[in-house]
Amino acid sequence: MSDNMKFVILGAGNIGTLIGAKLAQLDDSEVLIHGRGEHAAALAVNGISVDGVECFHISPDQYHLSIQDVGINSVFDGLADYILITSKAGDVEELLKLAKRFTNNDTRIIILSNGLGHIELGSQEFGSHRVIPATTTHGVWRKNPGSIEWAGLGAINLGKDRNSPKLEQLTKLISSFQAANLKPTWSDNGSNLVWSKVLINIAINPIAAITGQKNGELLEGDMFETCTEVMLEAAKVARMEGVELDDDSQLVDNLKLVLQNTKDNKCSMLQDVRLGKTTEIKFLNRMIVNKAEKYGLATPLNQLLSELIESLSLY
Question: Between the CA of residue 38 and those of 11, 46, 84, what are the distances in Å?
Answer without folding.
Answer: 13, 12, 21
